[in-house]
Write a structure and sequence with these properties.
Number of strands: 10
Order of helices and strands: HEHEHHEHEHEHEHEHEEHEH
CATH class of the largest domain: Alpha Beta
Structural class: alpha/beta
CATH architecture of the largest domain: 3-Layer(aba) Sandwich
Number of helices: 11
Largest sheet: 6 strands, parallel
CATH superfamily of the largest domain: SPOUT methyltransferase, trefoil knot domain
Distance between the termini: 111 Å
Helix content: 25-40%
Shape: elongated
């Protein structure tokens, strides 16, 4: 049997025969490999930004706790004592009488006022509904729980404090803050872990209420509930499994209202720390309510009993 001669493989510059031949080696013959033409990367055009600034990472995050945007949230910040570092505003809105005087006051306190195109504000807020104005403020300063309790008792003999147990959606937390402030609640307590904090989305949804409602952030929610109890608060937890209906409860005295997280409800340890569990009666097929909706109904019922 004669052996067939195996032809030697010829390194074809147009058809590489293995993976290593796809990359030219250092010191190799430039005629052997076909080089790719260099690609010129066109720099991003920021000419639309009036102040010619490239957004930093912190500026670009829609959940950035240092950014406040929207007419009502920024107006509330301008009217408060919170430190404002910079404001971006469209030329059209800057002539609005609601903002002109407050902008001058902020400028006198050291804030930088920059007129910017809407595209600039889109870039800062990741296309959120900024309504033509964005403010960079100092990080939100949470209250100490002891101070929150003291100020709540100074305002009324029957204070109401809402405790948010693990709310993770900033829209829900913002809505709870807005409802609580509108109904006259004296403060809100949130946990430090496994829950959303105060960020720009929360501030936007709260629509200015955050500047008028103290928020305490605690490491241990169970211990915080114990502190509230020691201060004379009766703690109610909302759950769908309780036989005690919301409208049958006498909500007199100092009240702590605990709202469970989305989907999971009250934490088991938190539930054991409550003095009573109440439920909202439902007549339809829908088995449960959104956390912010449930809190709004419960807060209204507590406040309604104080009004009659």
């Amino acid at each position: 049997m004669t052996k067939k001669k195996i032809p030697k493989l010829v390194n074809n510059p147009t058809q590489p025969n293995n993976k290593s031949s796809k990359r030219a080696k250092v010191g190799s013959n430039p005629k052997t490999f076909k080089t790719q033409p260099s690609i010129k990367i066109k720099p991003r055009n920021y000419s639309i930004l009036q102040d010619q600034e490239i957004p930093t990472v912190s500026e670009s995050e829609s959940g950035n706790p240092d950014l406040v945007y929207g007419k009502h949230p920024v107006l509330a910040v301008l009217s408060s004592d919170r430190q404002i570092n910079r404001i971006w505003i469209t030329p059209r809105l800057s002539s609005d009488r609601r903002f002109s005087d407050l902008l001058q006051q902020a400028k006198a306190k050291g804030a930088i006022i920059s007129k910017a195109d809407p595209q600039r504000l889109d870039s800062l807020t990741q296309y959120a509904n900024h309504q033509g104005i964005v403010a960079q403020v100092s990080p939100y300063s949470y209250w100490e729980l002891a101070d929150l309790i003291t100020i709540a008792k100074e305002k009324t003999s029957s204070p109401v404090i809402v405790i948010a147990d693990g709310i993770e959606d900033p829209h829900n937390l913002g809505a709870i803050i807005r409802t609580a402030e509108a109904m006259g609640v004296q403060g809100i307590v949130i946990p430090q872990r496994r829950a959303v904090g105060i960020n720009s989305t929360v501030v936007k949804v709260a629509a200015g209420a955050l500047e008028n409602l103290p928020i305490a952030r605690v490491v241990n929610l169970s211990q915080a509930l114990g502190t509230l109890k020691d201060s004379g608060f009766w703690i109610y937890g909302t759950t769908s499994e309780s036989s005690k209906l919301l409208h049958t409860i006498d909500f007199s005295g100092a009240i702590g209202l605990v709202i469970g997280s989305e989907g999971k409800g009250l934490n088991s340890l938190t539930e054991r720390c409550c003095d009573e569990l109440v439920s909202i009666p439902l007549a339809g097929i829908t088995p449960s309510l959104n956390a912010s909706v449930a809190s709004a109904i419960a807060i209204y019922e507590i406040c309604r009993q104080r009004w009659v």
